[in-house]
Amino acid sequence: MLRRLAPALLTVLVVALGVAALSARPPRGAPQRTADFVVLAGVAGLRWEDVSAQDTPTLWRMAQDGSIGSLSVRSAHRPTCPVDGWLTLGAGSFAGWNGSRIAGGCPPAGVVVEQPDGIGANLPQQESVVQYNQQQLPWGTVPGSLSESVRCSVAVGPGAAVAAARPFGRVDRYAAGLPADPSALLGSCVLSIVDLGTVDGVDPAARAEQAREADAQLARVLAARPPRSLVLVAGISDTAQPSRLHVAVADGPGWERGWLTSASTGRDGYLQLVDLAPTALAALGRPMPERLFLGRPAISTGERTGDLTDAINAPADADREAAAQRTVSGGFFTLLAGVQVLLALAVLPLLRRARPHAGPTGPTRVSARVVGVVEVLLVAAALTLPAALLADAVPWWRGEHPGWLFAGVTALLVAGGTAAVRFAPGYANTLGPFGAVAGLTTLVVGLDVFTGARLQLNGVVGYSALQGGRYSGLSTVGLGVFLAGALLTGGWLAQRVHRGWRPAVMVAVGGLAVVVVGSPYLGADPVGAIALTAGLSVAAVISAGGWLTISRLAWAAMAALAVGIGFAVVDLRRPAAERGSLGRFLSAVGDGTGGFTVHRSSTANFETLVNSPLTVLALVGALVVWFALLQPWGGLMRLFGIYPAVRAALAGTAVAAVLGGLLDGAALDVAGAAAALVVPMAALASLRVLGHAADRTRPGTGRTRDDGADDDRGSGGAGPAGGGDGPTGGGGPLGAVHPRPISGPPASPPRSVTPPLTPAPDTLDAPDRPDAPDRPDAPDRPDAPDGSARPVTDGAGVDAQPTPERPADGAAGSPVAPAQRLSSDPEPPARADRGSTGVAAP
After folding, report:
1. Is 533 helix (H, G, I), strand (E, B) or coil?
2. What are residue 9's phi and psi, to 5 degrees?
3. Which of 790, 596, 810, 592 is nearest to 700 (CA)?
4. Distances from the Cα of 129 to the Cαs of 83, 110, 111, 133, 166, in angstroms?
């Protein structure tokens, strides 16, 4: 009864862990009304490296008294040209200006502003711009949503007119430039938008001169600002490729000496361009439009301590790191994919020649030294992504040649991690490297997440603030590596306990991973948590043996669905401005705009699929597994038969990685990152299992541990003497000396044995024959009717234990092939159920 209820109980436990992790959210200060007037001042191209006490004294003093942050200027176009940036500011969502564009650059400003009455202005192009954003872009953006949310708005300059124009093109108040006394103009409406100019080019002297001009205009705005007003200064756009991070400063009541952040970034010191419109409305106490902005209101968080120079250096350094990350990451992943392909080609001949043959002829065994070198290379390949993540703890981007510095730091970390695994105490065991690499990977990524995921922000294997997709929690690559490491660690630990406890161990380890991935405090990836729940459920239900039946698959799907529904219910109960991605999607489905989200996700999946090097990793990994490791000579099926918990972990990883990538709009990137860890470790374990496929052992007092667990330490275990980690126990590299000699109970005097009618030299290696009691790799047999492992019997249903009346298995029997015989081995007993041998009466 308990066995039948186990899947349901495990499902309930996984669902409870998932919903508990996803329901709570970090406390954030709620945006409140803080001003009677808001002034948005934009400078296209302004970066933190342009700000100094000498060149921009006004902005310097404003930053010293107010809150600062790095601004990501993502829009519907790449790069975000000035007209795109102004349009996105006024829309509160990603928008783009229609018309022809220069490849890799920005077109000249072509905005037409008409002033028929001398008070306001009209933009005759606005109608076509609205249609372009509504019908041809995937965001469903409505330009002019900000001005539509207030009664009156002011625009100064052509860029500001683009931001302040209503959807039909009308600007309420307009001036081509600041008047001599702008007090009356800025005080005529609650919202004013001011174009302070542009800072562009690469010449430092020219940029400094343009920054001084913009700072002088800002000084006039601050001198004429209305009472109780909030002034936001932003580097509104890029001016050319590549994209950069820009300036964001807020000065006003409640914005003193802090760091800017918002719910859209979830990280202190980072803001998006789409956050400025909702910030202005929240400061004025105005309701948000019915169709919500993509951005979220900004708040000031934390006390900014220390000198302003040090505070400004932080976002400037982040900009340099993000720029270096963009140039290094593509080459890194391309090189990683190429190395993994070459390593897979090198492993194939070893797999075909790894298995000892029972007959007198067969392929020559590969040298143990060569196999040992290949195993070390497989460990190094699996540790490359965690090492690249750790490399961002060193400021390599500050050097003159950042790419080479990153490569050197990563290589040193890979060498150190590989040495730690190689000289670990359990390396000689078949699953020793498997468990060590999985545990080390999980530890590295987990510690980074627990400390704020600082290594993933602008990291080579993380996410870039320039892309505007993610600013906190787990990256796409981090999700793939972490879920693979967690599930493999769970499988390795589950294999070491009693069969009945394996699902519980798998759920315990995987459930903790679900909490880490889904919690807004940590991984902040609810979609990834749902995918991991599905993979964990699959792994848990088959970890004790058996196959993935329809009923077990149904329980796994129900667990993932229950976690998703539970989080959706919790998320929809929150205020609209505080909802996560899942709650916002369901809200969009409710108001009929969910198609935009589905379209964006499908578009992102396709673009990632055809452009990402991780797609190559995923496809190559799948080909290696299907056409090599899963073949009769590949060893993976034998590994699955001996270690069902490992089989369960690999199956769960495949489900979680594929599902997580598709739901997150990352195509095969999550699966590619997981494959970079899983495939090398599966190949290494298969090599070791094949290397001991024909070993002989005897059952003895150390054959089975008291708790029935499989051991990989070289003694004990639920398998042959030497445990579940290899038929001879040691399970080390091919050709390695066994850690302890094969021993067993004293042999009885030999009995009269009838010679076999038909020799069967490969009797010892029959993983697909459930009636072979003398196979040395039978700690677990998934071919039992109920999915559990079968005990070793003597062919008549009786446990093969040595008794005075009947010798132990291996005490007497038909001879084995010379390649399989040990000099100290007596002949094995005859098989009553095979018909090939007969035992004479005693």
Report:
1. helix
2. -65, -40
3. 810
4. 11, 13, 11, 6, 11
pLDDT tens column, 412-445: 999 999 999 999 988 988 899 999 999 999 999 9
The position carrying tokens 């996984």 is 14
The interaxial angle of helices 669-691 and 644-663, nearest 10 deg, is 170
pLDDT at 726 over 70: no
Question: Is the Cβ–Cβ distance between 339 and 347 less than 8 Å?
Answer: no
Phi, psi of 351, rounded to the nearest 5 degrees: -65, -40
Query: Which tokens is 604 given?
Result: 């992102």
CB 250 within 8 A of CB 49: no
Q: Which amino acid is at 478?
A: G
- The packing angle between helices 526-542 and 2-23, to 10°, is 160
Q: Do residues 229 and 252 lie in contact, with contact meaning Cβ atoms separated by under 8 Å?
A: yes
Residue 80 CA to residue 87 CA, distance in Å, equals 10
Rounded distance between C-alpha atoms, residue 148 and residue 140, angstroms: 16
Q: What is the DSSP letter of 578?
A: G
540, 11 in Cβ contact below 8 A?
A: no
Q: Which H/E stretch holds residue 498?
A: none
Angstrom distances, CA of residue 474 to CA of 384, 393, 469, 528, 578: 18, 16, 12, 9, 20
670 neighbors 527 (Cβ within 8 angstroms)? no
How many CB atoms neighbour CB 659 within 10 A?
Answer: 21
Report the candidate in 231, 232, 155, 228 with the shortest Cα–Cα distance to residue 189.
Answer: 155
Token pair belonging to 304? 């900014």
| Token code pair at residue 841 | 């009466």
Cα–Cα distance for residue pair 491/654, rounded to 1 Å: 14
Helices 57-65/204-223 angle, 10° precision: 60
Q: Which residues of 121-151 are buried (b: 16+ CB within 10 A; e: fewer)?
A: bbbebbeebbebbeeebbbbbbbbbbbebbe
Kindly report which listed range (158-172, 232-246, 463-477, 788-802) carries the lowest average pLDDT score: 788-802
Rounded Cα distance, 692 and 739, in Å: 14
Are the C-beta atoms of 483 and 674 separated by less than 8 Å?
A: yes
Residue with tokens 């601004």: 71
| Residues 6 or more apart in contact with residue 595 via CB below 8 angstroms | none
pLDDT of residue 493: 94
Q: Which residue intervals of 469-547 are DSSP H helices?
A: 476-495, 502-518, 526-542
Contacts of residue 798, defined as CB under 8 A and 6 or more positions apart, other chains included, come to none
Sign of the torsion angle spanned by Cα atoms 645, 650, 651, 656: positive
Question: Of 233, 302, 275, 259, which Cα lies nearest the Cα of 59?
Answer: 233
Q: What are phi and psi of 257, to 5 degrees?
A: 45, 60
Is 650 in contact with 491 (CB distance < 8 Å)? Answer: yes
Using CA atoms, how far apart are residues 799 and 713, in angstroms rounded to an integer?
24
Give the angle subtended at the CA of 575 by the CAs of 572 and 578, to the nearest 5°: 90
Sign (positive or negative) of CA dihedral 778, 779, 782, 786: positive
Question: And the tokens for 545?
Answer: 């043996």
Which residue, 42, 55, 50, is CA-closest to 312? 50
Q: Locate tokens 């961002």: which residue?
A: 392
Neighbouring residues of 465: CB distance < 8 A, sequence distance ≥ 6: 70, 72, 245, 270, 318, 322, 457, 458, 471
Please give the backbone phi and psi of residue 147, each rounded to the nearest 5 degrees, phi first: -65, -30
Quick: pLDDT tens for 71-90. Answer: 999 998 888 999 999 999 99
C-alpha pair distances (Å), 287 with each of 32, 186, 263, 284: 11, 22, 17, 9
* Residue linked to tokens 């972990």: 649
Residue pLDDT, tens place only, 213-240: 999 999 999 999 999 999 999 999 998 8
Beta bridge partner(s), residue 754: 838
* Beta-carbon count within 10 A of 206 CB: 12
